[in-house]
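Sample intake sheet
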Amino acid sequence: MGQVLFNPAAENVLASAAGDFTVKIWDIEAGSSKLSLKVGEVIQSLSWSADGKLLVTTSRDKKLRIWDPRQEKPAHEGPGHAGAKASRAVWLGEHDRIATTGFSRMSDRQLALWDIRTAAQPIGGFQMLDSISGVCMPFWDEGTQCLFLAGKGDGNIRYYEYENDSFEDLSEYKSADAQRGVAFLPKRGVNLHENEVARAYKTVNDTYIEPISFIVPRRAESFQEDIYPPTIGLKPAVSGKEWFDGADGLPPKISLESIYDGTGIKEVPADQQPVKKAPELVKAPEPKKESPQPAPTPSPRVRSPPPSMKEQGVGMAAAAGKFQDTEPTEESGDESPFEEVQRPLERTSATKPASAEAKEDVPIPSPTKESQPKSVSPKVINFQPRLNDPCISN
């Protein structure tokens, strides 16, 4: 089995990618697989929808499949990334959208956004990232509406904000320590008093695990509800038996403010939770066709009669009078009309004696111990979402 993923809404329901090119849906309480999804190729990634109703897969045959698991057949099957290397898919939480990463035929890394209702082609086409050969591992954060892309084999983690059916590039965490695997902590485990919005753990050289904190740079004097909306708690929406019988739904959410205050986990009533709707595709307005305006009819020009010879003579005399020299003439002498300006005296700069020159102190680096173990303290990243946030202050 290559991948194992719990259903986020149903209790004790598990999906696993098996070696026989199928996805098995397990009932853990019964200890057996009750459903089998025949993909027919090596399965590269799995991702559930937020309500646990649908499942998306990518596979080696370069196809994107959206499954209704209880029907054991795909609701959609179509081409994905055209490259030969592995692709990954992640469901964007409560949205009807899926993000995938993969490669083009020229082995360039790509990012794509799909509408599950019209998944024949990605929204806006494939977005090229770079030409690095490592697979991008996508992670979705529902609280900040951000997508994180961690490169396998390099040390970079990019993050994008999802808005208006597009991904806006925010920033990138760069490290010289390559990562082979990355996992993100559930939202209820981040440090709310330090405005930590996400925390990732990555494996470094298969020797240790390094934590990475993404923190919004603002004063953390009180609970910041704009960056900490209600999040998924510990209770499922339905039991395993109910899910296999056809039931589904979103799990109840908890208030992070109650965790911030130390009063324990408190569920948020469904009527107080923000309702998120799938974004609608906005069609660009068509340009208005301007009707041709009739050309204006030119009005006949009326010429005035030419001036008489007497009028022309008076006008010429008046024009000549404007340029008559009325200033008294000055006698010309031998003196030049330009004022003589003395040349400035050249100053010779005194040379500084060599003995008085200040010698700069060259800092001597302190010796390092090769045998000293590498620190695994969390690396802090300033996370600045492009959310039109008026609360961000220095």
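Comment: The domain at 4-275 is CATH 2.130.10.10 (Methylamine Dehydrogenase; Chain H). The mean pLDDT is 80.
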